[in-house]
Design goal:
12% helix, globular, mainly beta
Length: 184
């Protein structure tokens, strides 16, 4: 019997996805605008988890090298299910984790290890939440390395963020295919 990779439900394999190391500008950490900071609430416990993405290791048989879990408040899920749009001010947090892979009784499995960092996106279709280089295309954008919650290394979202999000522009710059909670 061959060993198979066992993945959690709702895991989507994303090849070539951006990671913390993909920051192009290598901006020094600066205080993020208040609206872009990692929320102080226990979002992993209290918010809805939209989905989890698995980024494979160089050798797929080694499992995942990273796991990305995306969260938003439940009211944003309800708004999207009602009218197909996220409301202005909707906050999304994507945790990036180094993955650990082990042989378990069910097969080879990858799971979250240490946190790499967090991406925060805030819906800003009206363009009222900010006007600097971390705002545009209807969103505010920021990445926070490790456990940092205030200082971002995102300099310009057009350089640091759009490279990965451009392919899903028709989906509002969100990877909706990985969010089973939003499927009707």
């Amino acid at each position: 019997m061959s060993r198979k990779l066992i993945w959690l439900p709702a895991v989507v394999v994303v090849l070539g996805a951006a990671t913390a190391g993909a920051q192009v500008t290598k901006s020094p950490p600066v205080d993020a605008e208040q609206v872009l900071r990692v929320p102080s609430v226990e979002y992993r416990k209290d918010w809805a988890q939209l989905g989890t993405f698995s980024v494979l290791a160089e050798k797929p048989q080694d499992g995942a090298k990273e796991l990305h879990a995306v969260y938003t408040e439940r009211k944003n899920v309800e708004a999207y299910l009602n009218d197909g749009k996220f409301p202005d001010g909707a906050v999304f947090v994507k945790d990036l984790w180094n993955a650990k892979t082990e042989a378990l009784p069910t097969g080879t499995a990858s799971f979250a290890g240490d946190v790499i960092g967090r991406f925060v996106m805030v819906k800003d279709a009206a363009g009222k939440l900010g006007s600097g280089a971390r705002f545009g295309d209807g969103w505010g954008w920021a990445f926070f390395a490790g456990n940092e919650t205030v200082k971002t290394v995102t300099g310009d979202y057009r350089i640091d963020c759009l490279t990965c999000h451009e392919p899903v522009r028709k989906q509002g710059l969100q990877f909706l295919q990985g969010y089973p909670l939003l499927r009707k």
